[in-house]
Known about the structure:
The protein has 296 residues and is an alpha/beta fold. The protein has helices at 6-15, 20-23, 25-37, 57-65, 78-94, 135-145, 163-172, 184-193, 213-222, 239-249; strands at residues 47-51, 70-75, 104-107, 120-126, 146-157, 197-210, 258-270, 277-278, 284-285, 289-290. The strands form two sheets. The protein has an eight-stranded mixed sheet, sandwiched between helices. A two-stranded antiparallel sheet has the order 8-9.
Amino acid sequence: MTRIDIHAARRRFERAASTCSEASVLAREVERRMAERLDYIKHEPQRVLDAGQGVGDGLRVLRRRYPKAMLLGVDSALALARRAESRQTVLARAMAFAFAPRPHHLCADMVQLPLANTSVGMVWSNLALAWVEEPLAVLREIHRVLEMGGLIMFSTYGPDTLKELKRAFAEADAKPHIHPFIDMHDLGDMLLAAGFADPVMDMEYITLTYAGVDALARDLRNSGQTNVALERSRGLMGRRTWQAMERAYERFRRDGRLPATFEIVYGHAWKVQSHRQTDPGGRDVARIDFMPRRPR
C-alpha cells in the first residue's frame, strides 16, 4: 500500500484553506448522504467530534442534527481550523444557533487527539481517513476517545476513485499519480482490530463530469486533494506527459463531458464492552455487515 506524505498533505490543505469550500462539491454531497444514514441510527450524543473538519461544513450538519450537543472539530491544517472557527460564528448567527453551545476548533493530528479517554459520544469523519498515514492507528485513537456506547461514522475513498484519470496517466508514464485507496473490506477488518463492534460497511460510486481535464485538476488542487504519495515524482510534470494523459482521457468522454468516478466507502460501528465471540474451535470470530453494492 502506498504511504502518504502527511507533511505534504498538510501543506496542500493549508494552501487550499481559502478555496476548498467552493471546490468541495463532492464532499458536501457525501456529507449529505452520511447525514441521511443517521436517520436510521438511534443515538443522542452529548459531545460530537468532527475528525478532519476542514473548514467546518460538517459541523453545520451536526448542529442541525444535535442542537444541544457540544461540537468539537479537529484538523491537522491550522489554516483550515482557523477558517472553520471564523465561518462557524457567522453560520451560527445566520441559522439561529446563537444560543447553542459554541463549537470548539482544534489543530491536531487525528492519530494523536488532544482529548481524554472516553470523552465524546460520537466521532464523525467525512473523507478524512484517505489522508492519514496509518488508518488503523487513527481508528484506535478514535476508539480511545469514544465513551462506551459511542458511535463512529465515517466516509473515505475506495480503490476505484479517479479510475479514469489513473488509466489515462498509466498510458503517459509509469509513475504513481493517484493514491491506491483502501478497500472497504480492509477497512472493516481495521474497525474490528481497533476494538469496534458490529461494523457496517457500504459503498457507492459518484460520478462528476467536467468540460476537460484542466477543470478536474483545478477542483482537486483547490480542495487540497492532490498526489501526496511518498513514491510520487518530486519534479514538475513535463508538457508531453500531460498532453499524453489528456489524449488518453478523451476516450472516456461521453455527451461532451469527461467523467470522474469516485468510489465512496461508508462505515459505522460502536464501542462496547466486549464483542468478541469464539467458535467451537476456540478461535476469535466477529461479524462485519457489508451492504450490497450500489449500481454505478
